[in-house]
Amino acid sequence: MTEPTADPDPAEQTTEPGPSVSVDLSPRDLPGAAKRRSLRNWCIVGALSLVLAGILYQALTSARVFFYNVDEAIARRDELGSQTFRIQGTVVDEPADIGGAMVFTIAFNDETAVVRHVGDEPSDLFEVGIPVVAEGHWEGEAFESRQLLVKHSESYVEDNPDRLVPDK
Question: Is the same domain home to 56 and 93?
């Protein structure tokens, strides 16, 4: 078995005779290089900030659709103009098909508005006495709607109690 040897003392190490080659690897400052890097970094950060601000602005403004009850929407009709918003009310009459559009009246707080819906047909839950939310804009005296959201009732639970899973 061989015995481990201790590390040789650096003073005892010998080097072979010959030319000594040393390479200086220390960083050097080139004239103006730091300023160019700093300016470039600030330009990149500024451009990224502008892009991020633009995306954030677009997301916040396109996702914002105001919600008004019928009485509020009528009071703000001139202010709202052709701006898209949602109006909420209860259906008070049967819809009529007039010129390819479904026309009906909604009410809230003793105010009524005529809705002219030209979007997809609402679900089977749409009927007189059911609250609806219509998304669109004022077109003259009528509210021009492209989307209807109908509130559903809880009658499914009442009609089908055997389909519920009881909590344990």
Answer: no
